[in-house]
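Honest question from a wet-lab person: if I give you the sequences of every part of a complex, can you actually get the arrangement of the whole thing, not just the pieces? Trying it with mine:
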Amino acid sequence: MDDTLRTCIEHPFSQSAAPLSLYISDHITSPTAVVMPVKRIVHVCHAHGAVVFVDAAHVPGQLRPNIQDIDADFYAGNLHKWVFCPRSAAIIWRNPSRQHAWFRPLVTSAFEHRGLHEAFGYEGTKDDIPYICAANGIEYINRVGGLEKINEYNSTLLYKGVTYLEEKWGTKRLQVPDSMHSLYQCIVALPFIPGFSDFKETPAVTQVFMGKNLELQKLLLDKFDVQVAVVYVGQELMVRVSVSIYNTMDDIIRLADAVLALTKTEALFISDAGFIRVF
Ligand SMILES: Cc1ncc(COP(=O)(O)O)c(C=O)c1O
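Yes, you can. This is the full assembly:
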């Protein structure tokens, strides 16, 4: 195994004062869209005696991993991202060869003791409709041509789109090995945007839900009708380009133009209230 990767995975084990018993790893990271080598992560964590939960929220409808082969203790993925289902539809898998008696839902019901399927299937009075729609989401994927065809369309558009943005903006996508690129999402550095790129209090870590990035995300939506996640990666502002079968190059061009408009200082006016308006 690559030494750097092993060092990164082992770091929390060597730094933690108490024994580390649970390790949670994303399969595809959310703000940065990086595919993690989860099988290798699981291997190292198990060697340290830790239980591993793989958060694969972005995997169903995008990748088709061999979950048994990854061998985590738990593996969960959302169906409301790339399987076109309503929110709260998700799958959770428990490794049959690694029994953990404590594994049960936080919200319980009268079905709590009827086995895991029933215990998780009936959580309080939660609406069943998102679960029922799972079959429709899968049926829809097959109707439009199947997962391979969607993979092909999305990854081709993403590659073309990101290359276009790099050329237009004179910036670069996140540099990771090819095997770690997600098929549907990629983050690209933004060009200098006055009022945002020069903001002094940038966070030290990847940041999604607070700060100037969120303000810029809102501005792109409100003024240009472009919905895109804006994230800080270290000190750098980047956008996460996400494509699905309803997107075309026109959407990418619209994003490119909106950002270029924001780079032009004369297009911006900082009001007394500190809001930025585009004229
Ligand atoms: C890796 C990852 N975990 C968890 C979540 C949140 O999942 P949920 O919508 O089920 O709360 C997301 C959503 O973006 C995600 O990307």
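Two things worth pointing out. The mean pLDDT is 89. The domain at 3-142 is CATH 3.40.640.10 (Aspartate Aminotransferase; domain 2).
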